[in-house]
């Protein structure tokens, strides 16, 4: 063999490892789009990652995650969704009302939503069992049964309540159906119901001033999800016992919440994201309905309101904040 040919052969051999390294497959990337701030959203992001692990995927090992936080500014969501779509992520997990922006940004990338709304009434999917298109996900909404149970627990906590106000975001796609459910539930619990509309953030102060009732419940909606501190502060100013639907309100100083676990919702979304990465199509993944509900009571707030929490209620609580 000629000396020149030998050198070329040896040179080619030395390059083989570099070529092999360059051809290693890249890990899939999931877009995580959320209306919360990164700080407020860390618990749900952690739950999502646990769901990914349940499905056999671990961030940094065999999957990467691109996080996009809207910092409670809904008008930022469309641009963030388009950014993820143009990056060609394998799937988008859209939480905190981000599904609208994600749906507009892509009709081909699988979208796994988390929501507190009725997915069919809100127009996310055509059917719970057969979502169709590129969307599926998890909801912690459970229809009229949840508001009926909330009013029952509220009356147990505040026995003399006769009138209950309900904060409603009128532009929500499920506002009408939730109000109808609330009217039926109020009748079943023997209380009068007053609807108070809150169209935007500046309306909150005026809404609390306008409330004429013994207690308050909050309609399930991302608009309220993103404002726990402001809503809890409004309730405190009015010295009003308030029933919430997710734990974030009680952690912010609210009195009590009863509803599906939002962390369980995000964990399931992570599992669905893993199944999509493994080849499942959104249209073959039924929307997951809530199965786990939690009652959380803030004793410090109860004392500030002059309420004595019945021992039977404390015994049933999943968590008591003191």
CATH hierarchy class name of the largest domain: Alpha Beta
User: Based on the structure given, which CATH architecture of the largest domain is correct?
Assistant: 3-Layer(aba) Sandwich
Terminal CA distance reads: 84 Å
Main pleated-sheet profile: 7 strands, mixed
Oligomer: single chain
Low-confidence stretches: 1-24
Q: Sum up the overall morphology in one term.
A: elongated
Radius of gyration: 24 Å
Helix- and strand-based class?
A: alpha/beta
Helix count equals 13
In CATH, the topology of the largest domain is named: Rossmann fold
Average pLDDT rating: 90
Q: Can you tell me the CATH superfamily of the largest domain?
A: Response regulator
Number of strands: 12
Tell me about this structure:
This protein is α/β, with parallel strands linked by helices and 322 residues long. It has two domains: 29-140 and 262-284, Response regulator (Rossmann fold, 3-Layer(aba) Sandwich); 144-259 and 293-321, Rossmann fold. The chain contains 13 helices and twelve strands. It has helices at residues 3-22, 38-54, 77-86, 99-105, 144-157, 175-189, 203-210, 222-225, 228-237, 247-251, 262-277, 299-304, 311-316, and strands at 29-34, 64-69, 91-95, 111-115, 135-139, 163-168, 192-197, 215-218, 242-244, 256-260, 293-298, 319-321. Helix 2 (38-54) packs across helix 11 (262-277), helix 3 (77-86) crosses helix 4 (99-105) and helix 5 (144-157) packs across helix 6. It is elongated.
């Amino acid at each position: 063999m000629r000396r020149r040919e030998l050198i070329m052969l040896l040179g080619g051999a030395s390059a083989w490892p570099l070529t092999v390294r360059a051809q290693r497959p890249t890990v899939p990337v999931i877009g995580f789009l959320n209306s919360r701030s990164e700080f407020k959203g860390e618990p749900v992001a952690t739950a999502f990652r646990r769901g990914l692990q349940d499905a056999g995927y671990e961030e940094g090992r065999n999957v990467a995650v691109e996080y996009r936080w809207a910092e409670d500014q809904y008008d930022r969501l469309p641009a963030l969704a388009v950014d993820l779509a143009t990056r060609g992520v394998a799937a988008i997990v859209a939480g905190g009302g981000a599904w609208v922006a994600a749906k507009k940004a892509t009709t081909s990338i699988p979208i796994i939503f988390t929501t507190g709304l009725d997915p069919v009434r809100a127009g996310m999917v055509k059917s719970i069992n057969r979502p169709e298109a590129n969307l599926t996900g998890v909801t912690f909404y459970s229809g009229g049964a949840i508001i009926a149970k909330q009013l029952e627990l509220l009356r147990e906590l505040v026995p003399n309540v006769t009138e209950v106000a309900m904060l409603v975001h009128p532009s929500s796609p499920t506002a009408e159906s939730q109000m109808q459910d609330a009217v039926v539930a109020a009748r079943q619990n023997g209380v009068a119901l007053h609807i108070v509309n809150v169209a935007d953030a500046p309306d909150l102060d005026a809404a609390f001033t306008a409330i004429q009732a013994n207690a308050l419940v909050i309609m399930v909606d991302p608009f309220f999800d993103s404002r726990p501190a402001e809503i809890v502060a409004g309730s405190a100013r009015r010295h009003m016992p308030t029933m919430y639907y997710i734990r974030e309100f009680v952690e912010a100083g609210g009195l009590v919440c009863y509803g599906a676990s939002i962390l369980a919702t995000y964990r399931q979304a992570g599992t669905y994201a893993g199944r999509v990465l493994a080849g499942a199509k959104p249209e073959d993944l039924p929307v997951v309905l809530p199965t786990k509900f939690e009652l959380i009571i803030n004793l410090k707030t109860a004392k500030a309101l002059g309420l004595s929490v019945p021992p039977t209620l404390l015994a049933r609580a999943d968590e008591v904040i003191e």
